[in-house]
Amino acid sequence: MTEIRTPRLLLRRWTDDDLVPLSEINADPEVMRWIGDGSTLDLDGTAEDIERFEDEWDEEGFGLFAVELLASGELIGVVGLSVPEWLPEVLPAVEITWRLGRSYWGQGYASEAAQATLEFALQDRGLDRVIAINRAGNDDSENVIRKLGMEPDRDTTDPEHGHLLQVHTIDLTEYEA
Known about the structure:
Elements: E1 3-5, E2 9-12, H1 19-26, H2 29-32, H3 43-60, E3 64-69, E4 75-82, E5 95-100, H4 109-124, E6 129-135, H5 139-147, E7 151-157, E8 164-171
Antiparallel strand pairs: 1-2, 2-3, 3-4, 4-5, 6-8, 7-8
Helix pairs in contact: 1-3
Protein backbone atom coordinates (compact mmCIF):
# COMPACT_ATOMS: atom_id res chain seq x y z
CA MET A 1 0.00 0.00 0.00
CA THR A 2 1.38 3.38 -1.01
CA GLU A 3 1.70 5.87 1.83
CA ILE A 4 3.60 9.12 2.25
CA ARG A 5 4.22 10.76 5.60
CA THR A 6 5.01 14.44 5.96
CA PRO A 7 5.59 16.24 9.26
CA ARG A 8 1.82 16.70 9.77
CA LEU A 9 0.08 14.52 7.21
CA LEU A 10 -0.44 10.99 6.00
CA LEU A 11 -1.17 10.56 2.29
CA ARG A 12 -2.69 7.14 1.71
CA ARG A 13 -5.04 5.05 -0.39
CA TRP A 14 -8.80 5.18 0.21
CA THR A 15 -10.84 3.13 2.68
CA ASP A 16 -14.59 2.74 3.22
CA ASP A 17 -14.30 4.99 6.28
CA ASP A 18 -13.36 7.92 4.03
CA LEU A 19 -16.71 8.13 2.23
CA VAL A 20 -18.64 10.19 4.79
CA PRO A 21 -15.87 12.70 5.64
CA LEU A 22 -15.06 13.26 1.95
CA SER A 23 -18.75 13.66 1.13
CA GLU A 24 -18.94 16.38 3.81
CA ILE A 25 -16.03 18.20 2.11
CA ASN A 26 -17.65 17.72 -1.32
CA ALA A 27 -20.99 19.07 -0.03
CA ASP A 28 -19.45 22.47 0.80
CA PRO A 29 -20.23 24.96 -2.01
CA GLU A 30 -17.19 27.05 -1.08
CA VAL A 31 -14.86 24.05 -1.50
CA MET A 32 -16.42 23.03 -4.81
CA ARG A 33 -16.82 26.48 -6.38
CA TRP A 34 -13.56 26.17 -8.40
CA ILE A 35 -14.09 22.54 -9.47
CA GLY A 36 -15.93 21.70 -12.69
CA ASP A 37 -19.19 23.65 -12.81
CA GLY A 38 -19.05 24.36 -9.09
CA SER A 39 -21.67 21.77 -8.16
CA THR A 40 -21.44 20.00 -4.83
CA LEU A 41 -21.41 16.22 -4.63
CA ASP A 42 -23.65 14.03 -2.51
CA LEU A 43 -22.75 10.68 -0.96
CA ASP A 44 -23.27 8.78 -4.25
CA GLY A 45 -21.19 11.27 -6.26
CA THR A 46 -18.43 11.07 -3.67
CA ALA A 47 -18.50 7.26 -3.81
CA GLU A 48 -18.09 7.49 -7.60
CA ASP A 49 -15.14 9.87 -7.12
CA ILE A 50 -13.39 7.48 -4.72
CA GLU A 51 -13.98 4.59 -7.11
CA ARG A 52 -12.43 6.66 -9.94
CA PHE A 53 -9.47 7.56 -7.71
CA GLU A 54 -8.82 3.90 -6.93
CA ASP A 55 -9.29 2.82 -10.57
CA GLU A 56 -6.62 5.32 -11.63
CA TRP A 57 -4.24 3.86 -9.04
CA ASP A 58 -4.82 0.42 -10.56
CA GLU A 59 -4.49 1.62 -14.17
CA GLU A 60 -1.72 4.23 -13.91
CA GLY A 61 0.25 3.33 -10.79
CA PHE A 62 -0.58 6.73 -9.30
CA GLY A 63 -3.72 8.55 -8.29
CA LEU A 64 -5.32 10.75 -5.69
CA PHE A 65 -4.43 10.17 -2.06
CA ALA A 66 -6.65 10.55 0.96
CA VAL A 67 -5.03 13.24 3.14
CA GLU A 68 -5.18 12.58 6.86
CA LEU A 69 -3.94 14.60 9.81
CA LEU A 70 -1.29 12.55 11.61
CA ALA A 71 -2.22 14.03 14.99
CA SER A 72 -5.91 13.04 14.87
CA GLY A 73 -6.40 10.59 11.99
CA GLU A 74 -8.98 12.97 10.56
CA LEU A 75 -9.53 13.03 6.78
CA ILE A 76 -8.96 16.60 5.56
CA GLY A 77 -9.10 16.16 1.80
CA VAL A 78 -7.53 14.87 -1.39
CA VAL A 79 -4.18 15.40 -3.13
CA GLY A 80 -2.45 13.49 -5.88
CA LEU A 81 -1.70 12.81 -9.49
CA SER A 82 -4.19 12.27 -12.28
CA VAL A 83 -4.34 12.12 -16.07
CA PRO A 84 -6.46 15.16 -17.09
CA GLU A 85 -8.45 13.41 -19.82
CA TRP A 86 -11.12 16.12 -19.52
CA LEU A 87 -8.63 18.58 -21.13
CA PRO A 88 -7.32 16.70 -24.20
CA GLU A 89 -5.13 19.57 -25.44
CA VAL A 90 -2.62 19.04 -22.59
CA LEU A 91 -2.27 15.29 -23.09
CA PRO A 92 -0.13 13.36 -22.61
CA ALA A 93 0.24 14.86 -19.15
CA VAL A 94 -0.02 14.11 -15.47
CA GLU A 95 -1.72 16.72 -13.31
CA ILE A 96 -1.22 17.44 -9.62
CA THR A 97 -4.44 18.39 -7.88
CA TRP A 98 -5.80 18.97 -4.39
CA ARG A 99 -9.04 19.65 -2.52
CA LEU A 100 -9.16 20.27 1.22
CA GLY A 101 -12.01 20.90 3.61
CA ARG A 102 -12.51 24.61 4.23
CA SER A 103 -11.53 24.43 7.90
CA TYR A 104 -8.05 23.28 6.78
CA TRP A 105 -7.37 26.16 4.39
CA GLY A 106 -4.61 28.65 5.12
CA GLN A 107 -2.54 26.31 7.29
CA GLY A 108 -0.05 25.10 4.67
CA TYR A 109 -1.55 21.61 4.37
CA ALA A 110 -2.14 21.84 0.60
CA SER A 111 1.45 22.96 -0.03
CA GLU A 112 2.86 20.29 2.30
CA ALA A 113 0.85 17.52 0.65
CA ALA A 114 1.54 18.80 -2.87
CA GLN A 115 5.33 19.00 -2.26
CA ALA A 116 5.29 15.39 -1.06
CA THR A 117 3.26 14.41 -4.12
CA LEU A 118 5.79 16.03 -6.48
CA GLU A 119 8.59 14.10 -4.76
CA PHE A 120 6.53 10.92 -5.18
CA ALA A 121 6.03 11.72 -8.90
CA LEU A 122 9.76 12.13 -9.44
CA GLN A 123 11.31 9.58 -7.10
CA ASP A 124 8.74 6.77 -7.00
CA ARG A 125 7.00 7.08 -10.37
CA GLY A 126 9.83 8.48 -12.50
CA LEU A 127 7.74 11.19 -14.13
CA ASP A 128 9.64 13.91 -16.01
CA ARG A 129 6.97 16.60 -15.92
CA VAL A 130 3.84 17.45 -13.97
CA ILE A 131 1.23 20.11 -14.71
CA ALA A 132 -1.31 21.95 -12.58
CA ILE A 133 -4.56 23.27 -14.03
CA ASN A 134 -6.05 26.19 -12.14
CA ARG A 135 -9.27 28.05 -12.82
CA ALA A 136 -8.48 31.75 -13.28
CA GLY A 137 -9.30 33.68 -10.13
CA ASN A 138 -8.58 30.84 -7.70
CA ASP A 139 -5.82 32.74 -5.92
CA ASP A 140 -5.41 30.22 -3.10
CA SER A 141 -4.55 27.42 -5.54
CA GLU A 142 -2.38 29.81 -7.52
CA ASN A 143 -0.35 30.43 -4.34
CA VAL A 144 0.20 26.68 -3.86
CA ILE A 145 1.24 26.36 -7.50
CA ARG A 146 3.82 29.14 -7.06
CA LYS A 147 5.18 27.53 -3.87
CA LEU A 148 5.69 24.32 -5.86
CA GLY A 149 7.93 26.21 -8.29
CA MET A 150 5.62 25.64 -11.25
CA GLU A 151 5.82 28.00 -14.22
CA PRO A 152 2.93 29.30 -16.38
CA ASP A 153 2.57 27.25 -19.55
CA ARG A 154 -0.62 28.49 -21.23
CA ASP A 155 -4.12 29.81 -20.77
CA THR A 156 -6.99 27.83 -22.20
CA THR A 157 -10.72 27.31 -21.84
CA ASP A 158 -12.47 24.49 -19.99
CA PRO A 159 -14.06 22.58 -22.89
CA GLU A 160 -17.13 21.60 -20.88
CA HIS A 161 -17.79 24.64 -18.67
CA GLY A 162 -16.17 27.54 -20.58
CA HIS A 163 -14.05 28.80 -17.66
CA LEU A 164 -10.65 30.36 -18.26
CA LEU A 165 -7.97 27.93 -17.10
CA GLN A 166 -4.30 28.48 -16.42
CA VAL A 167 -1.94 25.58 -17.03
CA HIS A 168 1.35 25.51 -15.11
CA THR A 169 4.20 23.06 -15.46
CA ILE A 170 7.29 21.85 -13.68
CA ASP A 171 10.10 19.84 -15.19
CA LEU A 172 10.82 17.28 -12.50
CA THR A 173 14.34 16.67 -13.78
CA GLU A 174 15.10 20.15 -12.42
CA TYR A 175 12.88 19.91 -9.34
CA GLU A 176 14.51 20.30 -5.96
CA ALA A 177 12.52 19.21 -2.92
